[in-house]
Design brief:
single chain, 154 residues, alpha+beta, GMP Synthetase, Chain A, domain 3, 3-stranded antiparallel beta sheet, two-stranded antiparallel ribbon, elongated, OsmC family protein, OsmC/Ohrsf, KH_dom-like_a/b, OsmC/Ohr_fam
Length: 154
């Protein structure tokens, strides 16, 4: 496996209230999420990220031929609890529902969809490939109490 030098992606998460957060990227784009009415949960955000990554791959290529008349992707997964007590998603599924005009461009775009979806999931979608490859997650903590010094752990 060769790894190419690619930019690092990052977001900053800010707590706005109990169980309410905003994730912000370096360009200032934001998404609110958390636990509660009107919010996507972190698990739902993960499903949206997987679906969104493949959506971009498919949309970029098919829209060169024509604009879709319908473009919807359902993303689902079943939360399971492992013997260790930890939880994760299993049986993650993407369901593509696309429609194109009945003309030459539409037929061309429609004919590309299955191949594009497979390429996205097998090669191009960074999000689904990261999940499939069980990428380790590392962390560090810095905690302050009052005006005292920070305690940092890795």
């Amino acid at each position: 496996m060769s790894e190419h030098q690619n930019p690092t992606h990052s977001v900053e998460l800010l707590r706005t209230a109990t169980n309410r957060y905003v994730a912000r990227n370096a360009d200032g784009a934001e998404v609110a999420f958390g636990r509660g009415e009107g919010l996507l949960s972190p698990v739902e955000l993960l499903l949206a990220a997987i679906a969104g990554c493949s959506a971009i791959d498919v949309d970029t290529v098919t829209s060169r031929s024509t604009e879709p008349t319908g473009f919807r992707i359902g993303a689902s997964g079943r939360k399971i609890t492992e013997d260790s007590g930890g939880s994760r998603l299993a049986d993650v599924n993407l369901s593509f529902h696309l429609a194109f005009p009945d003309d030459e461009g539409g037929r061309k775009a429609a004919g590309l969809v299955d191949r594009l979806v497979r390429l996205s999931l097998d090669k191009y979608c960074t999000v689904s490939r990261t999940v499939e490859h069980a990428t380790p997650v590392e962390f560090e903590t810095e905690v302050r109490v009052g005006g005292g010094p920070a305690t940092t752990n890795r």
